[in-house]
């Protein structure tokens, strides 16, 4: 269990978050431009730090997977996402910045009209509910301090949401810079201690199952492949678009993503290595999702343990705040404001509260981090990937009708496929992952639309 020093450092960190929130609260009401995209003044250091920390919130899920499957963690949660980010930087970053919009539904509205925009907003909202990350905070509170999971989930949600509620993206970026430093510092400290006290690869290879040092980790190729399709969800990731919309220039948006990929690769090396050490040192651990904090209590002395625990906490919270902001603006701006014309900033704040409450409910109902990623990622990627990616290019853009029905039907196919799996008590219905029939459905809409309407500009 945590000691006095752990609690002291965590307490200082929480005070910092509250102070950031109150600082912006005292400044009064923000314009929608300032609240959602920082007045489009996000510079390169803030862009990189915010994107890196936001995109890596699933730290306990990574610990769970690397503990159970070893190097496969890099193949599943590393490489496919670098490829997705690379494609975004090459093909979409500059276009997103030059669009001068606020959200993904704004782009869908511009390309396909309001019905498609509202349908897309539903998918964006589902994708960005930070349930998996709030659940991780609950696990951390339970394993570190013995706080019951429910209290940890609720308390973690409050501290992660308060400062974005008051200050929007600006507060998010301010805290992300600090969280970026903490997350890297924690794992550097951990690996230095592990290497110094246990040795390097020879120790790991002698103490983990043989499959842990293979690229599949004993998992089926079809299961691993599905994560490469889910990783294409990077092309429809609201956090990527929001930071590109907020960047000072198109060059910063593109260059910042390339730099971020290098940081992610380094961080993945550290997390995967730490997961392998955890399996070597505490193989009897009953809950792999707690492998990182349990390893810290096993091997790190007071101050350094506190730094690592704080790094875990910062990694998770950096994603919760960003996702909650995006989910809130989806409800507030893309639904309430778009339909009824209410104040976009105020309605976004209402949406943030609603998104936080819903995330708490989902986290307590479905207590598997990886399962939440898998389900929500499958739905959003299958539904949004083709219509959104094609919307930035006039020659490839779908017709309004095809885009609308593609989003609706592809998402519905994924949900039905998941339901059939549950009905027949199968992990994957007909041994096919749900994302595949969803993507096929979307691709069919795109193909038939191109064949039937490619010569008719009036439909686009």
Instruction: Provide the gyration radius in Å.
Output: 22 Å
Strand content: under 5%
Helicity level, as a percent range? over 70%
Distance between the termini: 60 Å
Instruction: Count helical runs.
Output: 21
Number of domains: 1
Which outline best applies? globular
Find the CATH superfamily: Sodium/glucose cotransporter
Encode the helix/strand succession as letters: HHHHHHHHHHHHHHHHHHHHH
Q: Which stretches of 5+ consecutive residues score pLDDT under 50?
A: none
CATH class: Mainly Alpha
| Backbone structural class | mainly alpha
Let me know the number of strands: 0
Mean pLDDT across all amino acids: 90
CATH architecture, by name, is Up-down Bundle
In the CATH hierarchy, the third-tier topology is known as Sodium/glucose cotransporter
Largest sheet: none
How does this model look, in words?
This protein is an all-alpha fold. It has one domain (4-370): Sodium/glucose cotransporter, CATH 1.20.1730.10. It has 21 helices and no strands. α8 packs antiparallel against α9, α10 (131-145) crosses α18 (344-365) and α10 packs antiparallel against α19 (369-391). The longest helix has 50 residues, at 149-198. The protein is globular, with a radius of gyration of 22 Å. The chain starts with a helix and ends in a 7-residue tail after the last helix.
